Amino acid sequence: GNSVTQMEGPVTLSEEAFLTINCTYTATGYPSLFWYVQYPGEGLQLLLKATKADDKGSNKGFEATYRKETTSFHLEKGSVQVSDSAVYFCALSIAIIQGAQKLVFGQGTRLTINP
Amino acid sequence: DADVTQTPRNRITKTGKRIMLECSQTKGHDRMYWYRQDPGLGLRLIYYSFDVKDINKGEISDGYSVSRQAQAKFSLSLESAIPNQTALYFCATSGGRSANEKLFFGSGTQLSVL
What we know:
heterodimer; A: mainly beta; B: four-stranded antiparallel β-sheet; 11 strands; globular
């Protein structure tokens, strides 16, 4: 089956610290991989994505590399800010018959950045 | 104005009551989705619709029904609410046919069933 496993939270860091949130997946076929972010009181927003092996997605200082050999898509940021406090979801996307996608989400990792 | 609007934002109801959650979008997307979010479980797909004539069950459709009244509107109903349907519900849309298309989410409806 298709599944996503994320590092358990919550994660608390100081401002300017290095961030890693681990994500591994199990999938049939060749999924696209995503990181979504949910700020307090809001819906999820796409943070970055990668569509094939060795692709690196990046946005707002965050990066993640699609590693097929380790079935991983770890999220990293070199220097976090208080405004990065949110819940982060790793997800994989698989194509459904008729061309639409189905997203499978990890359980989410709550990140808190202290000043 | 938000591209994907959900109403209500919060709802408290009693066991056995019928509840409808509404979603409307101004993005012109064909594909619409309903997810529920539970702590520690991520988001799980309830129903999805490719267009007004197409409705599909997701992984947890039992106890729910949907209606696609128009391209822009997709409502989720709980015919007889039960406490384990207490969750945060999200509507989402996507415009493309590939698995690479990003989803656009509403701000969510927090439903509590007492």
